[in-house]
Amino acid sequence: MKTTQILIAGFGGQGILFSGKFLAYKGLMEDYQVSWLPSYGPEMRGGTANCNVIISESPVGSPIITTPDVLIAMNTPSLQKYVDTVVSGGQIYVDSSLIDVKVERKDVEAFYIPATQMAKDAGITTLANMIIVGHLLENHPELSFDGTADVVEKLVPPKKAALKELNIKALNMGKDYKN
Amino acid sequence: MAERILMKGNEAIAEAAIRAGCRHYFGYPITPQTEIAAYMAKKMPKIGGVFLQAESEIASINMVYGASAAGMRVMTSSSSPGISLKTEGLSYIAGSDVPALVVNVQRGGPGLGGIQPSQSDYFQAVKGGGHGDYRMIVLAPASVQEMASLTIKGFDLADKYCMTSMILADGTIGQMMEPIVFEDEEPKTYEKPWALTGTECKRPHNIINSLYLKPDELEKKNFERYEKYKLVEENEPMWEEYMMEDAEICVVAFGIASRVAKNAVVAARNEGIKVGLIRPITLWPFPKEAISAAADKVKSFVSVELNMGQMIEDVRLYSQCKKPVALCNRTGGMIPSPDQVLESIHKAEKGEF
């Protein structure tokens, strides 16, 4: 019974919830059981945002993650808050353009991706989140990179159709990034 | 089979209500249930339904009362402090024997409390809330799929027994997304000969009222209503049993708490502890039989709740205090971790209460 618990954390506005939604949908399309739980309320209105995504071969029990297998940290406070909760042998994805501290733990795998800078350079400023997600997918063959365009198709509303290509571009940039 | 889609619990309630034939929604926004109103605002005008944001919770519950009296499938939704405001209307609806569906996506209390998930309105939902002798059918979903299926069930039970069905959810189940499947089913319809639909001069007037100034009449009405409640208690309790066959410790939990508890039960089983879970799906009528049967075979109970210990009173009542009942709880918007529940199971195993 394989279960992957993914915690995504950062500032409101960084697309934390959207990237979680993307991963949950990807899991759904690969026929896994999934849950997606956002933080909500005042903290969403200009503070920190986080999102719990569980992708599992068996039905999801509690949707609340206390010990993530994977942490995506999009700002320094989030990394500091959650770094010690990651399970031993887990993964931590760090947006290294916004976070200048390193993961000191030796029992986890850390990936440093200057996603915000990469997004800025490519003219897709708001899509740093999807660059990291692309890199994560590359490391998680069970979720498979194939079919990401279908997920983007499902999640980006018709009114924002122009964003579809840009999301796919960001995912590919993350996939191709060499850590 | 229909497609699996991802949906928020709150949206699942709204979509299910529409599929159940509800075309009248009256509400007032409050976190963490506002997605229900937002969904209705978007969908109702497109299908000839009514979405109305009232000036207050009190107005919205009385609009529900009125639309129901006219024979419509109707609902409102709110969260804890908003439900307190609606309780006057809930009592009038009960006193008039008309159906209604009311959703409470609970948050921390008392007072304005907080906006994080809670189960501290158990007493309010199950034991009363409003004044007078009355009951509501209380349904406690533990997944997004159940947010939908129990909404449909809630409408059917409300129409069948002419009383309020309350969906007692919480902020977590309301806000989370899970895969959900909607089967294409025609909504059930119920004859409502009592409804105020206009006599066309062909029948006597129907009157919907909760005022009975003569005490003997009011008493008769109340006795009649409790005959109806007896039928509900006989026919409608719903619960889930998990690993109870050989259980020596019985965890009792509903809604989000039951999901955390299930993780702990699995962890305890992996340690070789014989523990199972009873998850009440209807909180009223409470699954008395299940608790009573468990009381004869387990050594102890652990009640897991997001409050200061409310359901535990019913666990004690229906187990007739035959076995000790421990409380494992968090409150104020906090949620116990599976480890906390596991610790309570360990203590129960050692006989520490």
Describe the 3D structure:
The complex is a heterodimer of chains A (179) and B (353). By secondary structure, chain A is of the alpha/beta class. Chain A has helices at residues 16-29, 76-82, 115-121, 128-139, 148-155, 162-176; strands spanning 3-11, 33-38, 48-56, 70-73, 91-95, 109-113. Chain A contains 6 helices and 6 strands; from the N terminus they run βαβββαββαααα. Chain B folds into 2 domains: 5-235, 3-Layer(aba) Sandwich (Rossmann fold); 240-350, Rossmann fold, CATH 3.40.50.920. In chain B, helix 3 runs parallel beside helix 4 (80-96).
> What is the second-level CATH architecture of chain A?
3-Layer(aba) Sandwich
Give the class-level CATH name of chain A: Alpha Beta
Which consecutive residue ranges of chain A, at least 5 long each, have pLDDT under 50?
none
What is the β-strand count of chain A? 6
The SSE order of chain B reads EHEHEHEHEHEHEHEHEEHEEHEHEH
> What's the gyration radius of chain A in Å?
15 Å
Largest interface summary = A-B, 19 and 23 residues
State Rg of chain B. 21 Å
CATH superfamily of the largest domain in chain B: Thiamin diphosphate (ThDP)-binding fold, Pyr/PP domains
- What is the helix fraction of residues of chain A, given as a range? 25-40%
At CATH level 2, the architecture of the largest domain in chain B is 3-Layer(aba) Sandwich
Class by alpha and beta content of chain A: alpha/beta
Biggest beta-sheet profile of chain B: 7 strands, mixed
Number of separate structural domains of chain B = 2
Order of helices and strands of chain A: EHEEEHEEHHHH
Principal-axes geometry of chain A comes out as globular
- Class per helix and strand makeup of chain B: alpha/beta
Poorly predicted residue ranges of chain B: none
For this structure, the quaternary state is heterodimer
Proportion of β residues of chain A?
Answer: 15-25%
